[in-house]
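Reopening this ticket.

The earlier resolution said the output was attached, but the attachment link was broken on my side. Pasting everything inline this time so it's all in one place.
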Amino acid sequence: MRRFARRTALLVVAPAITLVAAAWLTARPGDPALYPPAPGDEAVEEAVEEAVIVRLVARAWHSGLLLPRDDLSRAAGKIGSGTLLEVTERFGAYPALEIGWGDAGFYRAVPTIDALDWRLALKALFTPGGRPAVLHVVGVAAEPGTAFPGAEIMTLPLSRAGFRRLATALGHAFTLRDGHPVEAGPGLYGPSLFYEAEGRFSLLNVCNHWSAGLLNEAGLPVTPLLDTLPQGLALDLAWRAPARAR
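Inline output:
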């Protein structure tokens, strides 16, 4: 019995140790010069500006970022991103934009967890070389809790410099044709559109990794292995950033 108990314990403990080691080895450090924001760390004309409030919206299988439209438009002007200027003008009637990235087929076909098709999910995750991706942009006028009932919302104050870094990476995520972002049809809910996107969706590069990558550009530390699921990403931010649930 003792020998059996030891073998059972080894079978449980060894994978756990392996996962912890893998998470530690693949963790990405943050940039203390960018996050957390500190008063006076910007240029003189921006020193009195408040931090930019960004929110992670984490649902059952997907996460996206809720970004203030005016701040995104201002950042686009500073970094010279015609792409983001065009997108923010397209949704000019809304104070915030929720932006997510994902598999072009799965994202459109599975608007909610109730619509989950495991065959489609497995195809999206395990297609060799990955699959084409899209961006989903939603104009949001309501408060986050009202706009996304049932979602876990993490509040993240970013420095202006960190937000510009995030905006730069976001601008590069749009596929361009003749210098313009390519619309790919109506979105899933509210005033929304799909856009063709750069990158390939796979098990090693899912929507939550994309959200984490943008936040890492803004200076936040992230742990890709933990961030595979939206609940893991929210936990990662609460643990390492830290973020606040709201």
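Reporter confirms the inline version is readable. The chain has one domain: 2-245. Confidence is low (pLDDT under 50) at residues 9-22, 41-48.
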